[in-house]
Amino acid sequence: FRLTRQGFNFLALRELTNSKVIKSLGSVIGVGKESEVYSVEGEEDSLLCIKFHILGEQSFRQVKKKRDFHKRNDFLSRFELSRKSAEKEFLYLEKLYKKGFPVPQPIKNNRHAVVMEYIHGEPLYVRRKELRNPGKLYRECMDLIVQFAHLGLIHGDFNEFNLLLDEDGDGDLFYYDDWKLYVFDLPQVVSVRHENAEEYFDRDVDCIRIFFKKRFHYECDDYPQFKDVLGKRSPDPDHVNEDDDDVEDDHDDDAATIPLDDLRLENDDENDDCLDVES
Ligand SMILES: Nc1ncnc2c1ncn2[C@@H]1O[C@H](COP(=O)(O)OP(=O)(O)O)[C@@H](O)[C@H]1O
Ligand SMILES: [Mg+2]
Predict the structure, then answer these.
(1) Residues 169 and 210 in one domain
(2) Which of 263, 265, 258, 261 is CA-nearest to residue 69?
(3) How far apart are CA 219 and CA 10, in angstroms?
(4) Where are the stretches annotated Disordered (predicted)?
(5) Ligand 1 pocket: which residues have CB below 6 Å?
(6) What is the CATH number of the domain that holds 85?
(7) Does any domain span residue 134?
């Protein structure tokens, strides 16, 4: 399996190099639960990163157990899942980036790999020190969840591991409240019309509430409710309507219809804050 996976990585890298998307592979940035992320050098010396999607053994077994997802019980089936996951992430990065959402700029998708802008910054979960104004960051996070919903989408894994604060600016950006919040990790995005949409929405909201309470001792009774944000959706001319880009009609591919829980690893509760675990 390992060799085969390296083989697919190699094929993707070779094509991306031949088509002049990237020049060279850098170092590992992150190994997530379903990915390996490396820095890469793009053309004109730009710093990019490449995310290889790897839907692992364990989650694959769960998927198979619950539904006959792919009959071929071999590497290719897993690879197919990984490829779909990457395609889906690229698609949503494109749509969200185009709409001005704070996501990394997508550059190129090849097989199970997504090349995107490298975001310098500090993931929210490493922030141990007090924030001068946690309420401001809290509201930004909740606003982002609401903006996703207005677009017809739920992130589905919106938590401190997938939020990043960029390092531009001078001095202690947290002291001056001068950060830019980015969100990434999109393969599990679901439509607000998904049958469990409310549950996913509430879970995203809860992750933020719980994290802010534990880490920054910040609690707020004001948090978005699914029915409120849904009610506000269609009449707003600034937001996508259903014909525009069919943002939420792309959900019906296989990767998108795998229930979120099936794509998680079993040791989720090792993390005391949220459902997401990253090493
Ligand atoms: N565009 C990016 N710029 C900088 N770091 C990134 C970028 N994308 C991902 N990372 C890093 O890689 C880690 C894993 O990526 P993520 O998309 O969250 O995958 P996973 O599904 O495995 O959690 C992230 O936690 C983050 O630290
Ligand atoms: Mg992640």
Answers:
(1) yes
(2) 258
(3) 47
(4) 229-279
(5) 29-30, 32-35, 37, 49, 51, 104, 116-119, 123, 161-162, 184-185, 278
(6) 3.30.200.20
(7) yes
Whether residue 276 is contained in a domain is answered as no
Name the DSSP letter for residue 241.
Answer: -
Same-domain pairing of 262 and 147: yes
Q: Which two tokens stand for residue 207?
A: 């992750």
> Are the CB atoms for 163 and 181 separated by under 8 Å?
yes
Q: What is the mean pLDDT of each run of 10 residues along the chain (279 residues)?
A: 76 96 95 90 94 75 52 72 96 97 97 96 81 89 97 97 78 63 96 97 98 94 93 51 43 39 32 31
Q: What is the reported pLDDT for 184? A: 95
Domain count along the chain? 2
**Structural domain for 248, as ranges:** 121-270
Residues with CB under 5 A from ligand 2 (ion): 32, 161-162, 185
Nearest protein Cα to ligand 1, atom 1: 118
Give the residue from 93, 117, 141 where a domain finishes.
117
CATH number of the domain residue 188 falls in: 1.10.510.10
**b/e map 173-204, b = 16+ CB within 10 Å:** bbeeeebebbbbbbbbbbbbebeebeebbbbb
Other C-beta atoms closer than 10 Å to the C-beta of 63 total: 21
Q: How far apart are CA 90 and CA 97, in angstroms?
A: 10
Q: Which amino acid makes up residue 201? A: F
